[in-house]
Every structure is written in C-alpha cells, then in structure tokens.
Amino acid sequence: MTKPRVLISDALSDAALQIFTERGVQADFEPGIGKDDLVKIIPHYEGLAIRSATKVTAKLLDAASRLKVVGRAGIGVDNVDVPAATNKGVIVMNTPFGNSITTAEHAIALMFALARQIPQADASTQAGKWEKNRFMGVELSGKVIGIIGCGNIGSVVAERAIGLKMRVIAFDPFLSPERARAIGVEKVELDDLLRRADIISLHTPLTTQTKNILSQENLAKTRKGVRIVNCARGGLIDEKALRAALDSGHVAGAAIDVFVEEPARSNLLFGQANVVCTPHLGAATTEAQENVALQIAEQMSDYLLRGAISNAINFPSITAEEAPKLRPYVALAEKLGSFAGQLTESGLKAVHITYSGEVAGMNTKALTSAALAGLLRPMLADINVVSAPSVAKERGIVVEETMREVTGDYASLITVSVTTERQERAVSGTVFQDGKPRILEIKGIKVDAEFAHSMIYVTNEDKPGFIGRFASLLGEAGINIATFALGRDKQGGSAIALVEVDGEVPTPVLDKVLTIPGVKQAKRLAF
After folding, report:
1. Can you tell me the distance from the alpha carbon of 431 to that of 411, in angstroms, rounded to the nearest whole number?
2. Assign residue 314 a region: left if phi > 0, alpha if psi is -120 to 50, beta otherwise?
3. Which of 94, 125, 363, 459 is the most exposed place for a label (fewest CB within 10 A)?
4. 287 burial level (CB within 10 Å; 0-12, 13-18, 19+)
C-alpha cells in the first residue's frame, strides 16, 4: 500500500514530523514555501499541514487534485477558504484544545498588566525614574469580569478568574445554563455584560455576528473606567472607536494581542499610555506549539490511515474506534441515496432518513452526509460526503433524520425517503454479516438485492409473461443477466424487478423494455 503524503508548509515542531513518520505517513517539510511553488507541488499530496502563514485559497485547492485534508495547528482557520475546501471534498481540521490554557494565561497576564500598569512601570523604572506614585493600580479581586465567548478558552479564563476571587459573568448564545452553573459563571445578555463588567475579555471567533461586537455603540454602553482585553481575533473591536473611548477616558485601558491587520507594523492604538500591545502571542508558548503540532499530526494521520475524523470544521467527527464499524453503513447510505437520486427526474424538495435498530446509535450525521452525496451526485456530478450537506442547504432541500430503537427482521435498517415536485419515493437497506450493503425494500415493496455496477430497475404490473419477455429481450441484445430480484405489493398488483447485468445497457434496449405490456418504468442504474 502506498503511503499517503503530507506537506508541512509552515514552521511546525519536529515532533509533528516524527509522529507522521511513526504512523506510516510520508511527510515533507517545506516551511516558508512560496505560493507559486506550493501550487506546483500540491497535486502530489493527500494532506497539507499549516499554521497561520500558508493561505489555502480556492486557487490552491483547485490545483490540489489529491488533497483530502488540511490540518491547521491552532484554532483559527481564517487563512483557509473553508467553503472552497468543502466544495472540493477536503476535510479542514484544527486543534481547538491544544493552546487553550496558553491563550487563557496570556489573557490573565494582560489583565494584570492593565490593572497594575506593569509595562509602563517597567519602562519608567529602567529609564532611571522612580515614579512610585504615578503607577497606582487596581485590584482584580472582587472585580466583575465579563467574558464574551465562553468556549474552550473562555471557560479556562473563567476558572482562573474565579480563583482570583473575581465575579464572572459571560455572554455566549451557545452556553447552556447547565454548563454555566458547572463552571461557576453567570450567563447574561450582552447589554447586561457591557453595563456591569469592570473588565471585558474577548474569547469568541470572528464571524459576521461577532465582527465589531465592541462597536462604538456598544463601547458607549460600558461602565466608565472599564478595561478591555482581546486575545481572540482582530476585528472583534472597532479599533477607531476604542481609540476614541480611550482618549476620552471612558475606557481606562486596553490590552490587545490581535489586530485587524497583521502583522501590525503600525496601528492607531500604538503609543498610547493606557494601552498594552503584544504581537499575537496568545498561543506562543513552547508547550502550546508542541501540543498543537502533535495533535494535528495525530489527527491527520488517523484520517488518512484509518478514516477517523476529529476536530473537523466541515464534517462530523468519526472516532478511530467507530470508523471500521461505520464504513459499511456509510457505503450503504451512499448507495441508497444514489438509488433514489438516479430515479429522481424532478426537483428535490426534501429528504427524510430513518435509522432503525443498532445503526440509530451510530454517527448518523456522517451517514446522512453520505446519503446526500449519493442522492445529489447523479444530478450535480461533482459532489462528495463533505460538500453534500452544504449543497443541499444552498438549494433549499429540507433534510430530516428519525431514530428508531427497533426494527423488524434486521439488526439495522436505513430508509431514505425522497420528496420531489411530483412524487415521494423510499428505499431501505441494511448491511449483512459479510459487510455488503443490500436493498431490502423499494416503495414499500420487499426485495432482496445487492448493489451492482450495472443494473436495470423495472416497475410493472404483476401479470404473467413479463419475466419471459424481459429475459428474451435481453438475450436477443446479447446482455447477460447476473442476478434477478423480484418483489410485489400483492398478487396482481404492482411489481418491481432489480436486475444485475454484465456490461452497459444501451438506450435502445431500455426503450424496448418499455414496450413490454404492463411495464411502467425502466431505468439504467450504476453503483
């Protein structure tokens, strides 16, 4: 088996290279490679490991014909075109936990620097001055800290702040009341936080909703003398509005580690007596860089070698333990979706996937992605399990899941029901002990058939003579029948035939099948 290849295009710890090698992945180390050279060599790689310097653009992704995964050693993926990667079927991973403690500690350090004016006092003292009365500070104990974004890093800041005897309030729409109680914070609305906080610390991603969350309007809502710390992302604060609030004295001080434009060679916040600035040092500790390098190497190796997916931005996680068990059901879901997609001739409106039995306890998000990929591929061609959910959403297709603990005669059953502008269609299947997916039911009619490369699907009236005429017609055309599965809803009612044949089925042959008395539909299928 050929080893998967990974390109490391940014400076990563040597430990990452060692992990790749030990796991059986060929890793090439090219830190600082130019973007033009990167475009030239990326077609040779299945994986790309980066930090913040490499820009993974749509152009680069177009050239990356073999690429399966981009791994970001760190939290932010601002330098990756995630929608373009998703459309190309490339998994984008990050390491959200590797630098949580380091970044939280930096926020706490900046908080102390603000409260006690440490940088200014250091500069004054080393200049030979002894201005003890000039640098009067404030205690953190007893102060109210308002945390905007109480996820991995924000919750660590909250824990440290509680240890400092501070009162912690937090604004985070995704923070549940139970989680807030568990970590000892008071969940509040943004306006309440702005009104009450002595110190505001930002720990939220930069999104359309959070951009300039500390705008001129919101800064005006803060209490006079507030201090602000940002170790999250540039763009969360309106820098011009903050400068004005600092100049007026409404904001007592600010500690900024991240800026709208980086590297920040100049900034309107520089040179202010009440501002502390650091060059994006939130994750800059030896321990953090080692942690994220190890973590991204392990994650990428697990995916390329075992199919395990963790900390992916654009796909559900799949553990290494569940990947082998899940794999045949992913194949089943994709083939069931493909079956429905190949028979769909009008606009899709909704997809309902029912998981019954043991499969209901598996990672159904991954299975649903596979079913959608199979369903959409006959119509849109360049679709994969990564891009399918976003494509379905873009096209307004309603996707629903139902879980059932028990099923009939099978340990697991997946049913894909499709609603189009003209009709509804459902197909069910399972995985047998041999690991092969099988079709068990079509439109409520029981049938038992394996998926095959070349098949013919026929719906007809249940009347004598169909099988003989059908088989004779294929024989006359030189088409050999490999397997023949039949089903009907009742005697003399509606019947279906799912037939595996050797080789392709010419259109004229299908046209002749349609002339057989009682035949309603004849379609060529390929799996």
Report:
1. 9
2. alpha
3. 125
4. exposed
User: So which residues are the catalytic ones?
Assistant: 233, 262, 280
Do 221 and 239 lie in one domain? The reply is yes
Do 374 and 498 belong together in one domain? no
The answer to whether the peptide bond before residue 263 is cis (omega within 30 degrees of 0) is: yes
Sign of CA dihedral 148, 150, 154, 156: positive
pTM above 0.85, yes or no: no
Per-residue pLDDT at 386 exceeds 90: no
Written as one letter, the residue type at 250 is H
Both 175 and 104 in one domain: the answer is yes
- What span, in angstroms and rounded, lies between the C-alpha atoms of 26 and 47? 10
Q: Please check whether residue 316 lies inside any domain of the structure.
A: no
Q: Which domain holds residue 27?
A: 5-97+287-306
Is-contact 365 317, C-beta < 8 A? no
Q: Is 117 left (phi over 0), alpha (psi -120 to 50) or beta?
A: left
Q: Are 109 and 256 found together in one domain?
A: yes
Both structure tokens of 390: 């976003």
Do residue 108 and residue 84 come from a single domain? no
Average of per-residue pLDDT across 176-203:
94
Question: What is the edge-to-edge ordering of all strands in the sheet holding 69-72?
Answer: 26-29, 5-8, 47-50, 69-72, 91-93
Q: Is the pLDDT of residue 47 over 90?
A: yes
Residue 39 lies in a domain: yes
Distances (CA, A) of 73 to 9, 107, 285, 379: 11, 20, 13, 37
Residue 270: how many other CB atoms lie within 10 Å: 12
Instruction: Fill in the DSSP letter of residue 318.
Output: B
